[in-house]
Design brief:
Layout lengths: L8 H18 L8 H16 L7 H38 E2 L2 E2 L8 H6 L3 H13 L2 H12 L4 H7 L4 H15 L2 H6 L5
Antiparallel strand pairs: 1-2
Keywords: DNA-binding, Sigma factor, Transcription, Transcription regulation
Organism: Oceanobacillus kapialis
Family: Belongs to the sigma-70 factor family. ECF subfamily.
Length: about 190
């Protein structure tokens, strides 16, 4: 950028800010947290810094750089969502078989179950936990993750089996929520 006739980046950004929005819209990207917009601005900055006037117009170079950076970010996030979905499905596969929960013989040791979870699995469960009441989370934690029986949970929590079943019914209802499923990457 030795050319003294070049405009400052602030001026370039003001003139081309809509270009970033255009590519976000064109690629049909949802950007509630302005991640893609920030990535587009970074791409514009890199394009501004690396621009060589002998190779073409600045606008074309901006379009190329911004679009490709946004596509890269979308692919990266898609891979992350896919990995989280696989982890969630794996958990679900091991925890539930149809309507019956698979339990190891005499297994009520939850610590051993959660120790084997990787970070993405723990992150999914943390998101789920935020959506549930304490009792609903107890049902998920003990019944699904810990593979405990309803009777064991009721005894441990000093309540009735009917209360534990009610926790489970309400938890399942919340877990079917489409907004939650979208956040977990389980629903398109």
């Amino acid at each position: 950028m030795n050319n003294k006739n070049m405009e400052s980046f602030e001026e370039i950004m003001k003139q081309n800010e809509r270009r970033v929005h255009y590519h976000i819209h064109r690629l049909n990207l949802s950007d509630p947290h302005k991640e893609y917009f920030q990535e587009g601005l970074c791409a514009m900055w890199n394009a501004y810094e690396n621009y060589d006037p002998d190779k073409g117009t600045m606008a074309t170079y901006f379009n190329y750089t911004i679009r490709n950076r946004l596509v890269d970010l979308a692919r990266k996030q898609g891979r992350e969502n896919s990995n989280q979905l696989k982890a969630f499905k794996e958990i679900k596969k091991h925890a539930v078989d149809g309507n019956k929960v698979m339990r190891a013989e005499g297994s009520s040791n939850i610590v051993s179950v959660t120790e084997n979870m990787d970070y993405s699995e723990q992150k999914l469960w943390e998101i789920i936990k935020q959506e549930l009441t304490d009792n609903q989370w107890k049902w998920v934690y003990y019944y699904i993750i810990g593979r405990m029986k309803i009777k064991e949970i009721a005894k441990q929590e000093a309540t009735t089996e009917e209360a534990v079943k009610s926790w489970g019914k309400q938890a399942r209802k919340k877990l079917r929520n489409k907004d939650l499923l979208k956040r977990l990457g389980l629903f398109g």
